Amino acid sequence: MTTRRTETRKGWVLACPACESGIAYTILTNWDAPVPFFYADVSNDVLLRSSDRQRVESLGENPHLADLEHLWDEILSSAPVAPSGGEFGLWTNVKCPHCGYEIPYNGGVRNLAVRIHEPKIVLVDGAVVVGDVDEETWVVRVDVTGGQP
Ligand SMILES: [Zn+2]
Fold it and tell me: 24 C-alpha to center of ligand 1: Å?
């Protein structure tokens, strides 16, 4: 049993629309989207593996959406179970750690192109970011003392 690495990032607090508790979060930006990443269904863990990113590169430049969708499906079909619980999915989104309310992705509109090219990964305090190996897996700690962005 290894102790997971913790990384502290500057972040912000959002009031949960359901229970009004503060949700501490930070954002990771994929400047080279599309990058495959998935939230777990019953926790805020995120699957973000460099091997999956390399698989996108193997599709060549400007891959078709259908090819990306196929790859995203393939990745999910062989994805591990989330360390904090649940399975990774394409349409699952971040949840309030206090009441479990799931914040609707893209205002609740399922747009595949938008989702696959999503550059921003929302990391909620306490979530585990799952990489290919233990060394690339880390726990998110959000530092909200810096004030507003
Ligand atoms: Zn809540």
Answer: 12
